[in-house]
């Protein structure tokens, strides 16, 4: 018959034939519904990390659910890497994949929650028509809700990560619970403009919640190598973790007040995030510190690295051993170094490393490019955010 057209309701996935306006129920159309609105049972969600079976799209291209490439909508790679990393944080992922009443209720009222939920479900679906996914709807909602993030303008992945977690927590709740740790900050302060040499320090203690720990990377050396290029040093992770050993004092001066801070960990979260402070921003320019921080992919033991407020914290009830789950890194084009005039944030690109739990295989994802990689190479990247998961929270140890 001519002049008849099939239409689908994007909310209910019901199909109708117009102009007669009758519903079409045909099992041959189910694959369209599964692609448009993927659904997951509790059993399927529980087995996601154990699945190593490749799916195939309608063109016969194989892909591994959960490790799909995302389209770069012109300088939106900083959004892609954050979504890829969060898609492998099990509690957050499971919350959005399941038919959760809280999520469904918030999704009806909050477009950001709905678009993020739909994107995660497509990333983990085995019924996609294409092996790559466009985050267009989600990115559009992000740009609509925040003027700090725009299509066609490169952004800061750390800023977006911070904003997305805060917005999902505000609009839905229960997001930061897995990331939230507790730290005791001891602050010593005195005014620097006073001439007396015996000015006393004022001491305060504050209990603070944290979603990630910022690690300060030491400045790069001023010396050049034999060819006149900048020397890129390498330091172990444990050197920058010394900030939280309960002994080291971190100094700063602001508005005529000298501050010294000492940090003591009170509680470590299930998912521990390290932010490597690579970018130094001021009113005129932005510089990137290219120092390589070598960090372990497995068995990161923090018992001897951190100072805990309670001596019996590291016990059976509070394990302190972590495995790397995801790593977001930033790359600059060749020749764009510290002496260049360009903003490294605007001219750099992002990629992410994520681990397939059942096979212990690592993948490097950069927009549409998905490839296997070796764990030895991950610790040599210019990492910005590293997400670790506590050993008692992993499916395989």
UniProtKB/TrEMBL annotation:
**One Pfam family, short name:** UCH
The segment(s) forming the UBP-type domain are: 1-43
Q: What are the entry keywords? A: Metal-binding, Zinc, Zinc-finger
User: Where is each USP domain found?
Assistant: 68-391
Q: Which GO terms describe its molecular function?
A: cysteine-type deubiquitinase activity; zinc ion binding
Which BP terms from GO are recorded? protein deubiquitination
Q: Which PROSITE patterns match?
A: USP_3 (PS50235), ZF_UBP (PS50271)
UniProt-recorded name of the protein = USP domain-containing protein
């Amino acid at each position: 018959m001519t002049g008849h057209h099939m239409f689908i309701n994007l909310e209910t996935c019901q199909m109708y034939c117009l102009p007669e306006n009758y519903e079409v129920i045909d099992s041959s159309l189910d694959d369209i519904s599964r692609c448009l609105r993927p659904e997951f049972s509790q059993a399927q969600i529980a087995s996601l990390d154990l699945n190593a079976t490749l799916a195939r799209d309608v063109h016969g291209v194989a892909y591994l659910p959960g490790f799909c490439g995302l389209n770069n909508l012109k300088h939106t790679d900083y959004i892609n890497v954050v979504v890829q990393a969060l898609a492998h944080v099990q509690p957050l992922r499971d919350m959005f994949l399941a038919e959760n009443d809280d999520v469904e209720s918030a999704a009806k009222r909050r477009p950001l929650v709905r678009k993020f939920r739909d994107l995660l479900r497509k990333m983990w679906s085995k019924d996609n028509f294409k092996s790559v996914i466009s985050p267009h709807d989600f990115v559009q909602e992000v740009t609509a809700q925040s003027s700090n993030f725009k299509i066609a303008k490169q952004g800061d992945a750390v800023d977006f990560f911070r904003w997305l977690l805060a917005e999902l927590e505000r609009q839905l709740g229960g997001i930061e619970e897995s990331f939230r740790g507790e730290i005791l900050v001891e602050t010593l302060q005195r005014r620097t403009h006073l001439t007396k040499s015996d000015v006393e320090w004022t001491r305060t203690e504050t209990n603070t919640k944290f979603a990630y720990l910022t690690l300060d990377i030491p400045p790069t050396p001023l010396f050049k190598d034999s060819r006149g290029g900048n020397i890129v040093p390498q330091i172990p992770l444990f050197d920058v973790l010394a900030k939280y050993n309960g002994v080291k004092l971190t100094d700063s001066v602001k508005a005529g007040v000298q501050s010294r801070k000492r940090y003591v960990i009170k509680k470590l979260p299930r998912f521990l995030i390290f932010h490597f402070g690579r970018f130094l921003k001021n009113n005129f320019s932005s510089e990137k510190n290219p120092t390589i921080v070598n960090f372990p992919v497995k068995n990161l033991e923090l018992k001897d690295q951190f100072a805990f407020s309670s001596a019996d914290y590291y016990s059976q009830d509070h394990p302190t051993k972590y495995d790397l789950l995801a790593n977001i890194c930033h790359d600059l084009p060749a020749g764009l170094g510290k002496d260049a005039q360009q903003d490294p944030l605007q001219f750099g690109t992002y990629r992410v490393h994520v681990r397939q739990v059942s096979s212990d295989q690592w993948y490097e994802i950069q927009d549409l490019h998905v490839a296997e990689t070796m764990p030895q190479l991950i610790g040599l990247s210019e990492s910005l955010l590293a997400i670790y998961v506590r050993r008692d929270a992993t499916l395989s140890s």
